[in-house]
Amino acid sequence: MGEKFHKRIERATCADLSYEGKGVCRIEDGVVFVDFILPGEEGDIEIDYRRNGQLFGHVKKIAVPSPDRIFPECPVCYACGGCSFQWYRYEAELRYKQQKVKEQFRKLAGMDVDVLPTIGMEEPRYYRNKIQPLVGNDEEDHTYTGFYKEGTHHIVPVERCLIEDERASKILKVIRDLLDRFHIPAYDEHARFGVMRRILIKTSYHYPEIMVVLITAAERFPQKDRFVEALIKECPERTTIVQNINNSPSSVILGEWERVLFGSGIIRDSIGDLTFRISAKSFYQTNPQMVEILYAKAMEFAHLKPTDVVYDAYSGTGTIGLMAAKHVKNVVAVEIVKEAVEDAVRNAQDNRINNYSAHVGDASSFLKAMASRGEKVDVLFMDPPRKGSNPVFMDAVMKMKPSRIVYVSCDPSSLARDVKYLSKLYKVGRIQPIDMFPRTTHVETVAELCLK
Ligand code: SAH
Q1: 291-310: per-residue pLDDT in tens?
Q2: What does the pLDDT look like over 136-160, one tens digit per residue?
């Protein structure tokens, strides 16, 4: 902020939605990215600030609403910033996501690709199996929980979130009441004073199991035992309670140190006929209904055969490779987080899968070493983090020449960039967006690549 601009209100029409879900409105001196306006709508927009030479604003009044505008059920949706589309018809959101993937291929890969229609949820609500709200106290010292307003450290209180698993919302309410009853203060990050920073709740979709992680600023937790006892009494599910200590001044969510206060310290969930262990720190896909569809598509695009040697790169707790294992000769996984690999090995044992090995390491170095040893691979799954993969990894892949690559991506721009690189040797097949994150701008994509 701070760049010079002329603060004013103007009438404008929204042409499109940007990558970040903001309305693209053209005015006399350029383009403004406007919050809360939808394509085709005309309205009064207030220009709020200029950043990197770009104007940003929000809508004041809508004069001509879009037929895709709906009345949002969430009372805090404009303030919270977690969702970008509570006021947008879901079908239109799904079309936006399909278009967004296509557009990234055009812009960043110079490729005109066909993108399949986004597969959405039947009921795009209550899906998140992991929530991690902040804790605060109001003027009367009542506890509230909520999320940072976009771009700030101001907590917007949220009583009931429409995209979270409802069981988590219920337990969160119980926890707020207990924090009040036991006079346990929220941690105030400005004053650096207080106890409770955040509450992390993970719910299992297929088992009646829940994990509550109480994230405190220090080890001190007054009335801890009575608090835990009271919380357990109120939870109908099998519950495990963990305390995590995070004394970092930054906004990282979990600290290093944790201890189990009640139960096993893990929950289980399943995908297809496999069961997975989930601990406080391990990554697990956040939409348990759509993950079934995501992985089913990944398997379909892979055309697995019993003789195949399969690599699962960026494997996390092993989910994709373990799903593939029963259809192929063997699976080799590589992942950089040691705890995730330990979980993957345990998950293989628990599901009696013997043709699977998982390695701790950087996927690029690992593949480069495999390629220089002349190792062969038939099918490669790759599921990198948001920033995508890199040339070292992809050069090694092109040396090993797997006949198929299935690229699972949570960011269409790094996907398009990487697919362009691989397109020297690979033909692009189906590109399937899947709505893992309804009501937000994020979209997951599975892409099929075949050796030319
Ligand atoms: N395939 C898994 C995890 C995908 S998330 C699933 O579907 O659940 C991406 C994973 O890549 C994370 O587990 C992250 O720890 C891992 N990762 C990030 N950088 C990496 C690197 N350089 N080498 C290997 N793995 C990496």
Answers
A1: 999 999 999 999 999 999 99
A2: 999 999 999 999 987 788 999 999 9
| Residue 410 is a catalytic residue | yes
Closest to 105 (Cα-Cα) out of 418, 437, 429: 418
Query: Tens digit of pLDDT for each residue in 155-186?
Result: 999 999 999 999 999 999 999 999 999 999 99
Q: Domains in the chain, please, with CATH?
A: 8-69 (2.40.50.140), 102-121+287-451 (3.40.50.150), 130-270 (2.40.50.1070)
CA of 97 to the centre of ligand 1 (A): 23
For strand 30-35 and strand 54-64, is the pairing parallel, antiparallel, or unpaired? parallel
Mutate to test the pocket of ligand 1, among 281, 283, 287, 314 (most ligand atoms within 8 A of CB): 314
Residues in the chain: 452
Would you say the CB of residue 410 lies under 6 angstroms from ligand 1?
no
Which residue CA neighbors atom 6 of ligand 1 most closely?
316
Q: Which residue's CA is the nearest one to ligand 1's atom 22? A: 362
CA 32 and chain centroid, separation: 28
CA–CA distance, 344 with 319 (Å, rounded to integer): 8
* pLDDT level of residue 2 (50, 70, 90 thresholds): low
Amino acid residing at 276: F
How close is the Cα of 295 to the center of ligand 1, in Å?
A: 15
